[in-house]
Amino acid sequence: MENGVSSSSTAAKSQKPPPTPSFRSPVPSAGLDEGLSAGPAGPGELLKQECDSLGPPLASSTTAKPSPSSSGPGALPWPGPPGRAGRPPQAALPPVVILSKAAYSLLGARRGGKLPAAAALLPHPDVAWASPLRPPPPAHAGPEEQSLYYRRWTATRPHHADHGNPPDPASGARACHPRRLLLSGPPQVGKTGSYLQFLRLLFRMLIRLLEVDVYDEAEINTDRSESSEVSQSEGEPWPDIESVSKMPFDVSVHDPKYRSMSLVYTEKLAAVKQEAIKEPKAEEPRKRETMSMMLTKYAAYNTFHHCEQCHQYMDFTSASQMSDATLHAFTFSSSMLGEEVQLYFIIPKSKESHFVFSKQGKHLESMRLPLVSDKQNLNVVKSPIFTPSSGRHEHGLLNLFHAMEGISHLHLLVVKEYEMPLYRKYWPNHIMLVLPGMFNNAGVGAARFLIKELSYHNLELERNRLEELGVKRECVWPFIVVMDDSCVLWNIHSVQEQTSQPMETGVSSKNVSLKSVLQHMEATPKIVHYAILGIQKWSSRLTSRSLKVPFSRCHVHDFILLNIDLTQNVQYDFNRYFCEDVDFNLRTNSSGLLICRFNNFSLMKKHVQVGGQRDFIIKPKIMVSESMAPILPLQYVCAPDSEHTLLAAPAQFLLEKFLQHASYKLFPKAIRNFRSPVLAIDCYLNIGPEVAVCYISSRPHSSNVNCEAVCFGGLLLYLCDSFVGADLLKKFKFLKGATLCVICQDRSSLRQTIVRLELEDEWQFRLRDEFQTANSSDDKPLYFLTGRHV
Q1: Which residue of 54, 177, 388, 471 shows the fewest CB atoms closer than 10 Å?
Q2: Which phi and psi (to 5°) does residue 10 adopt?
Q3: Quick check: 576 and 444 in contact, CB under 8 A?
Q4: Are 203 and 521 in contact (CB under 8 A)?
Q5: Alpha-carbon distances of 30 from 68, 101, 116, 390, 545, rounded to whole Å
């Protein structure tokens, strides 16, 4: 006997085991309901039980011989050896714990729904009850309710982790750090090893969050660039308007993302050997080169970034704050679309100061613009920032708080109507410009077109408003920033004589903020005379040679400062899905406007694997079977009125994809023949890397490349307007057998264009050479006709 409790599992050896033993309590009042439990024993063993000193003494006894009457509330069958006495084996009982009556009275369940006395025990030795007058614990509480109860009614002792973290006097709750973790478990189960492994994984995860994969590709077509004959000083911070205007525009595209696109014809390109250009097959997707970089304090972030500094910039503190944003319709007339366009602004309360409302405060009148004459302020960026985004509500780099160094700025997300709820959920404190529903399936060209149209209309409204206040119309700031949602870091470069870094010999690079880049560009002398300002793409292959020319007159992409006043008559093609910026740059240059690139700044673009220019999934409009062969690009077009499989994709998308892969069929005379490019009037379209495209503008007084001695291998007329006439086309020479492709909105316009341009005089057409995109008539297919020069 020890501590008043004893038990015996064997009986006297002299007693023979009964064939069917049973366990009967010697005292009826001390049955199983009061704490006496039976456990399995060997056959023939007798169980002995004694009560502790706190309860009434129970006589130690042994079981008697079995009898049929030994059945009642205090008796349980005892399993014997299988197969004995001809009885079938019985299932074994679970393990049995033998408790004293005092222990059972403390730990056992109470009758009548009362809690056991153990509920009064403290949950941890390092805490004490905060007050003796406390409510009982919840009867059927789960782990969360129990945790809240003990946090409310216990006080910490000196050794507890929360001893220096007193509770809130009002609510009684402690301010728990959101990243505090509790690891609990029984002794000697490997908690330390698990904790260290968790820290190892957490460290890797945090390091990965501080890394970003950026594109690291050298510029292309650098050997075909138009050399600048104007000398420039290397140390000049801003371009000189006179020097830039004397530079020839470099029509060659140098952005490496356009490696597989058609080359833009130049006189230098005509001298390139045909075998010198080797491009991968279109069917083989080329993986772009990337490099892992550490994020800096000036980076742009996505929704997975959280810090104390930009908490208010990103999140909303209460569920009601999301409803504080107001929806405002904004209607303007577009001459290009031929109708009124209604856009919607979603404006949070904290951003309403950037807008002008009617006196009643309900109608949105305009978006505030600063003045050109405003002095440069270190805490102000003049230009509104527009970021079109699609499919990247989580992964788009739309958090510009750190990139703008925390200053107040006007940033507008441009989203499609069907994606607005998702973007509003993840970016509740951002101003959103919602495109009309008719552009839900449109490409990036539509977003850029509407951004520019809206901005010019707003510029006129602000000029009218400020003119009433005595401000001259030309003094209103005419620039906007249009940037992609994958711009992550910005750098400044300078040339140095010696460096210890062999990879970047002669180049010193420093990460800078978006704010400093914009403020530097906005401080350009005579800035209102520039149409577009931009910066170059970052590459680890940047050399001092590429930085010797501080400014270039060439294409700019992805991050531009756009003068919406000068470019009023130059529009983005709202139909386009691909190369819309190349097309816009060529239109701008042919209009005689200046495009300038700052070579001492560079932009890093993150490799974002979702959203953006994601291709449409090309599938049949009516699915016959789920397992179908992939649809090839040559199947994106068909003969009109044929029984071809109709596809569920926009007509413009199908057309552009088809042209990228059909150059061998459409323009065989121009394949790898850069002396005889394809003549494209008023448009640039990618018709494959094997073909060069000569861009010509039909507008009066436009600036075009000299092509008097060029004999073209093809002619591309894409949705041509009234500026394109028969007299213009007769100025150009074509090879015998050169091919023509005329693209129109419908069959009627196609025939009218053939007649108006007198194409049948020099081109031969066949009825079977008429095609359409593989759309149904409800989806408004595009039609095109091919012909051969005679």
Answers
A1: 177
A2: -130, 150
A3: yes
A4: no
A5: 22, 9, 19, 74, 99
* The pair of three-digit structure tokens given for residue 743, joined into one six-digit string: 């693209």
Residue 591 Cα to chain centre, angstroms: 36
Residue whose C-alpha is closest to residue 25's, from 50, 56, 54, 53: 50
Given a contact cutoff of 8 angstroms between Cβ atoms, the answer to whether 211 and 602 are in contact is no
Q: Which two tokens stand for residue 526?
A: 């005579």
Residue in 362, 357, 356, 406 with CA at minimum distance from that of residue 380: 406
Sequence length of the chain is 790
**CA angle centred on 198, ends 195 and 202, rounded to 5°:** 140
How many angstroms separate the Cα of 487 from the Cα of each of 215, 300, 514?
11, 7, 10
For the chain, the C-alpha Rg in angstroms (whole number) is: 40
CA pair distance 363, 371, nearest whole angstrom? 24
Task: Please state, in angstroms and rounded to a whole number, the distance separating the CA atoms of residues 414 and 448.
Answer: 9
Provide the β-strand partners of residue 717.
Answer: 681, 742
In which residue are the tokens 């983005």 written? Answer: 572
Q: Nearest 5°: CA angle at 73, between 71 and 77?
A: 50
Q: How far is Cα 560 from Cα 576, in angstroms, rounded to an integer?
A: 19
Nearest to 706 by CA among 737, 671, 689, 731: 731
Please give the structure tokens belonging to residue 261. 């696109």
Mean pLDDT by 10 residues, the chain (790 residues): 41 43 40 40 40 40 42 45 54 83 76 69 88 83 84 86 75 67 81 90 88 95 66 82 95 95 91 56 70 96 89 62 80 89 95 92 92 87 98 96 96 97 95 96 96 98 97 97 98 74 67 98 97 97 85 97 98 96 98 97 96 79 73 93 89 96 95 96 96 96 92 97 95 96 96 96 93 92 96
Instruction: Measure the CA–CA gap between 160 and 342, rounded to whole angstroms.
Output: 61
| Residue 246, H or E segment | helix 241-246
The tokens of 756 are what?
A: 């108006």
Q: Which of 538, 528, 515, 554 is nearest to 600 (CA)?
A: 538
DSSP letters for 483-545:
E-TTEEEEEEEEE-S--S-GGGTTEEEEEE-HHHHHHHHHT-TTGGG-SEEEEEEP-TT--HH
Residue type, 638: C
Cα 664 from Cα 788, distance rounded (Å):
14
Cα–Cα distance measured from residue 193 to residue 180, given in angstroms and rounded to the nearest whole number: 19
The C-alpha atoms of residue 463 and residue 104 are separated, in whole angstroms, by 87
Query: Closest Cα to residue 325, out of 334, 338, 333, 316?
Result: 316
Q: How far apart are CA 251 and CA 703, in angstroms?
A: 12
Q: What is the pLDDT of residue 12?
A: 40
Give the C-alpha separation, 165 to 145, whole Å.
21
Of 435, 452, 337, the C-alpha closest to 386 is 452
**Spatial distance between the Cα atoms of 483 and 775, rounded to a whole number of angstroms:** 33
Measure Cα distances from 259 to 279, 513, 626, 666, 721 in Å: 8, 29, 35, 21, 30
Measure Cα distances from 279 to 18, 33, 143, 319 in Å. Answer: 95, 86, 64, 54
Taking alpha carbons only, the member of 674, 712, 711, 710 closest to residue 691 is 674
Amino acid identity of 310? C
User: What gap in Å lies between CA 431 and CA 543, rounded to an integer?
Assistant: 40
pLDDT at 387: 98
Question: What global pTM score does this model have?
Answer: 0.77
Query: What span, in angstroms and rounded, lies between the C-alpha atoms of 603 and 512?
Result: 10
- 394, 491 contact by CB (below 8 A): no
pLDDT value at residue 704: 94
Count CB-CB contacts under 10 A for residue 385: 18
The H or E element containing residue 424 is: helix 420-426
Residue type, 45: E
**Contact residues for 717 (Cβ-Cβ < 8 A; gap 6+):** 681, 724, 740, 741, 742, 743, 753, 757
Q: DSSP assignment of 382-407, as one string?
A: -S-EEEE-SS-TTTS--B-TTTTTT-
